[in-house]
């Protein structure tokens, strides 16, 4: 059984059909790309998968469970973490606190435990700290633990955002254009980082990306959409030479 099974997914915004009968089956442990021209519906598919929108039609089944009706934090609880096209960090909290805070949804203590500083509270907080420091070490961020993200270069902010997503120990990591806004050295770092995370944590990754270099170096399979519908799928080599894909990106006159 696939880890993520999306069938007949359709999303309408008023008269606009942003996603149209979209299907995908993502196997556990794979690293899969989702590409397509601007406005093709990629982020909408991620927003549906992570519970930000409820689909007009269709089903999203994650780890055997239909996610319809679940709120984003419940979907996070099932093991889906994501990053955003425009980095979303708490810029006035330290890097360490950004990573700590995302784990609180599963802290296992209530407000009275926190108020009375019970053993349950102290142990849960210790666990959160230890995961956060382990991740900072693993992702070469320890030196920046006490910095505010807004004071870091963009490439490091992206790294912090990925570390924060990883702090919930997801089964599936959704990366929405992780290379957006990065310079070429940072793109190389990102390729290394995502490849390393995939291997080290044996995690399933689904990635939207415009930079072909990133997609082609990392993904074993790619799905291409245009106007909300799948137009091609296959290996990077197959996709690169598919005339339908070239036409979608460049228009008829360039073929
Ligand atoms: N909340 C919304 N309300 C209305 N229309 C929306 C909404 N979200 C997305 N759309 C529209 O749906 C279409 C698909 O948008 P989406 O952001 O999913 O595309 P995308 O493939 O991620 O594009 P890009 O590569 O530029 O990020 C676009 O026409 C967009 O304007």
From TrEMBL:
Q: Gene3D superfamilies of this UniProt entry?
A: P-loop containing nucleotide triphosphate hydrolases
PROSITE patterns in the cross-refs:
ABC_TRANSPORTER_2 (PS50893)
Q: Which GO terms describe its molecular function?
A: ATP binding; ATP hydrolysis activity; L-isoleucine transmembrane transporter activity; L-phenylalanine transmembrane transporter activity; L-valine transmembrane transporter activity
Its BP terms in the Gene Ontology are: D-alanine transmembrane transport; L-alanine transport; L-isoleucine import across plasma membrane; L-valine import across plasma membrane
Cite a single Pfam family from the UniProt record.
Answer: ABC_tran
Q: Which UniProt keywords apply?
A: ATP-binding, Nucleotide-binding, Transport
Q: Where is the ABC transporter domain?
A: 4-252
GO CC terms: plasma membrane
- This chain belongs to which protein, by name? Branched-chain amino acid transport system ATP-binding protein
């Amino acid at each position: 059984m696939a880890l993520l099974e999306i069938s007949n997914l359709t999303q309408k915004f008023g008269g606009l059909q942003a996603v149209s009968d979209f299907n995908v089956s993502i196997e556990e442990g794979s690293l899969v790309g989702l590409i397509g021209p601007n406005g093709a519906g990629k982020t909408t598919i991620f927003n549906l998968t992570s519970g930000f929108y409820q689909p007009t039609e269709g089903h999203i089944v994650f780890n055997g469970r239909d996610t319809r009706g679940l709120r984003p934090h419940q979907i996070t609880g099932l093991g889906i973490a994501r990053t955003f096209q425009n980095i979303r960090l708490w810029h006035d909290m330290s890097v360490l606190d950004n990573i700590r805070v995302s784990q609180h949804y599963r802290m296992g203590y209530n407000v009275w435990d926190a108020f009375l500083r019970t053993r349950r509270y102290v142990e849960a907080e210790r666990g959160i700290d230890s995961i956060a420091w382990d991740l900072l070490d693993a992702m070469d961020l320890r030196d920046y633990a006490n910095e505010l993200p807004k004071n870091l270069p963009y490439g490091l902010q992206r790294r912090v955002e990925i570390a924060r997503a990883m702090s919930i120990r997801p089964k599936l990591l959704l990366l929405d254009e992780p290379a957006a806004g990065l310079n070429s050295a940072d793109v190389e770092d990102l390729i290394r980082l995502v490849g390393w995370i995939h291997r080290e944590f044996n995690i399933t990754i689904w990635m939207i990306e415009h930079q072909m270099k990133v997609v082609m170096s990392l993904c074993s399979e790619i799905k291409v959409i245009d106007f909300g519908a799948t137009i091609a799928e296959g290996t990077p080599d197959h996709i690169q030479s598919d005339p339908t894909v070239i036409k979608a990106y460049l228009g008829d006159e360039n073929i």
